[in-house]
Amino acid sequence: MSLPVRTAIAAGLLAVCGLALAAPRPLVAAKSRIDFSVKEMGVTVSGQFRKFEATIDLDPARPEASKAEVVVDIASLTTGDADADAIAVDKPWLDKLGFPKATFKSTAVKSPAPNRYEVSGVLTIRGKARPIVVPLTTAAQADGGLLATGGFSVRRSDFGIGGGEWNEGDLVADEVPVTFSLTLGPAAR
């Protein structure tokens, strides 16, 4: 086999391998979580969003070519207290009827260290879009999948979340920590 033919085959194999790494990975929803906590009158209340979609196209060889998009169903919020949940998704707070989805869409991805990423993007809640940087750590799974974990904080006031007497003073903290654990299946080939 001639050198040009071997080079062409090698280049083709590298291209295919690169495409496999860069292909979007399907979200394994049953093994994924988006959690939050908020202090209400000094007491931490924890909850989660049970329904969300994520499309993550992570290329470790070329992180700048990576993309991520997450869409959260606001009505899926749960804290384990039905009354509190109804208030949280009502109009002065998250307003599930007026703004049924919260979204994050990446604009740039950097990798400062192996398996660590800084995902810059736009977070939109209640129709208000704000830039944010989300730190992300990945771990390979035995099935060829990937576990992506991280966290960030949201300031309620940046998105107009809250209202009435509960928004006065320190009754409900402005800072809301969010953590996530996304299990992604193997990349499509």
Can you tell me the CATH class? Mainly Beta
Helix-and-strand structural type: alpha+beta
Question: Which strand order do you get reading across the main beta sheet?
Answer: 3-4-6-7-8-9-10-1-2-5
Q: Assign the CATH superfamily.
A: Lipid/polyisoprenoid-binding, YceI-like
- Count all strands and give the number: 10
- What percent of the residues sit in helical stretches (DSSP H or I)? 10-25%
Question: Taking all residues together, what is the mean pLDDT?
Answer: 87
Oligomer: single chain
Report how far the terminal alpha carbons are from each other: 28 Å
Which strand-content bin applies to the residues?
over 45%
CATH architectural designation: Beta Barrel
Shape descriptor reads elongated
Q: Kindly identify the CATH topology.
A: Lipocalin
The biggest sheet, with number of strands, parallel, antiparallel or mixed sense and barrel status, is: 10 strands, antiparallel
Helix-strand string: HEEEEEHEEEEHE
Main features:
189 residues; alpha+beta; Lipocalin; ten-stranded antiparallel β-sheet; 10 strands
Could you describe the 3D structure shown?
- By secondary structure, the chain is of the alpha+beta class.
- It has a single domain (3-184), classed as Beta Barrel (Lipocalin).
- 16% of the residues lie in helices and 46% in strands.
- The protein contains three helices and ten strands.
- It has helices spanning 3-22, 82-88, 156-159, and strands at residues 33-40, 43-49, 52-57, 67-73, 77-78, 101-113, 116-125, 128-140, 146-155, 175-184.
- The protein has a ten-stranded antiparallel β-sheet with strand order 3-4-6-7-8-9-10-1-2-5.
- The radius of gyration is 20 Å and the shape is elongated.
- Mean pLDDT is 87; it is low at 1-21.
